[in-house]
Structure formats: C-alpha cells, structure tokens
Amino acid sequence: TGVAPAQKQPNVLFLLSDNHRWDQMGCSGNPIVSTPNIDNLASNGTRFSNAFVTTPICAASRASFLTGLYERTHQYTFNTPPLKSCFANISYPSVLKASGYYTGFIGKFGIESGKGGIGLENSDKTLYKMFDQFDNFEHWGIIKGSPKGYFVDQPDGTKRHLTEVTGDKVVDFLNGRDSDQP
Description:
The protein has 182 residues and is α+β, with helices and mostly antiparallel strands. The chain is built from seven helices and four strands, in the order H-H-H-H-H-E-H-E-E-E-H. The radius of gyration is 18 Å and the shape is globular. The termini are far apart.
C-alpha cells in the first residue's frame, strides 16, 4: 500500500484596501471609479462581498482583522494601552506561522502607539510570533523610517508613489526576497 502524498498548504494573501466604501471599486459595480488591479484580484481570488467591519475606526478595525475579536474584547483603538500580546498570539498570522507558514506583513500596520511605535504589548517578541518579515510603513511619517506623504524619495533622487513601493515590496516577499529598498 502506498502512502498518499502530503498535500501542499494553500497560499494565503490578505489584502486590505483602506478608507473606502464597499461600492468604491469596479468589481462592486461602480461606474466611475477605476480599480483594475483590485478587480483582477477579485475575479481571480475570493472577494468577500458580504463583509463588514465591526468598528469603522482604523486602529480598532485592524486589531479586529488580526485577532478575529470585537473591539469590546481586544479593547484596542487610538489612545488606548497597547493591544495585549495574548490577543496577538492567537491572531491568524501567529496561528499560520505556528503551522509552518512563512508569514509577512508589508504596508500600514495601523496598530501604533501614537508616539512613533508599534501599539503591541511586548512588540518585538509579539511581532516575531506573528511575522517572519515585518515591513511597517505608512504615509503619515510617524513611524520611524516611514515616508511623510505619498511619494518616497529614491536613492537616485527620483520619487515613487507609496503604492508602487508597497507593491514592489509585496512582490519581493512573495518571490522570497527581502526588500530593503525604500
């Protein structure tokens, strides 16, 4: 008798497009807004068309996405104590990493202290449990090393839009390369 080959784990890619209504994409039928890349992802992946956030506040919503908990349970939003590590330790990135996945985060983490730091209890240790690669940056410039504004200075003196830089970093991560380029 033969042994069935081990099944390959599926890849999981979570993309969060921020600060727009549910109908502000071409894939949702908007006749004016053009979102060809999101539309392509929606048609070739899974689009949750009946999803909503429990708290329409960036920081609280992001903590809920990570932990699967309501804000009243994780108790994290702007100007609160850090998100407790016990909640981050049960987050989907932590569960995936503990199950053998190579995990990464690229872009605006949005769980910040307001003082230029990450708003996670024991942030270095907690982030390590969640992500193999963590590249947090956003356009406000409050996180050390993040650009201020939507254009990022390049080593050759040119500027690139933050969206392009983020996309390149994601592609590098998916291809197994660390990207140190701004």
